[in-house]
TrEMBL record:
InterPro entries: NTF2-like_dom_sf (IPR032710), SnoaL-like (IPR037401). Residues 10-137 form the SnoaL-like domain. Coiled coil: none annotated. Residues 132-151 are annotated as: Disordered. This is Nuclear transport factor 2 family protein. Gene3D superfamilies: 3.10.450.50. Residues 140-151 have a biased composition (Acidic residues). It comes from Streptomyces liangshanensis.
Amino acid sequence: MTARTDVEQVELANTTFYEAMERGDLDALTALWLADEDGISCVHPGWPVLSGRAEVLRSYALIMANTEYIQFFLTDVAVSVSGDTALVTCTENILSGGPAEESGELGPLVGQLVVATNVFRRTGDGWRVWSHHGSPVLTETDEEEDEEPSS
């Protein structure tokens, strides 16, 4: 068996990051982030910048506690490695749902597109997330496409 290239290792770390979110596995997600308390950051779509390990991990705990179902279909994945730093850009095609308001069963599923940048650093334990930034993709509605420009 041959050793994986840096790009393959980073791709695996990136996939593992999203799989932990899908499973709602906060312990696995925690292990994927750098241990440096002050050096990490995260921006979820529509959120302010979160800095520091405790604040970032708390945000994931809140998301997991309030999301009954989430699945990521990653597209446009691009990996760049320079020394001990790696950059991954991708489109997160997200399907998610929370509990229905009355019955407690899974409510309606909602789709969302988010472009993400994940920065990884190489450690003695492998590649770890240093920063995550997700921005929503704004799409035109059918009404906006049908409107004539005003002059």
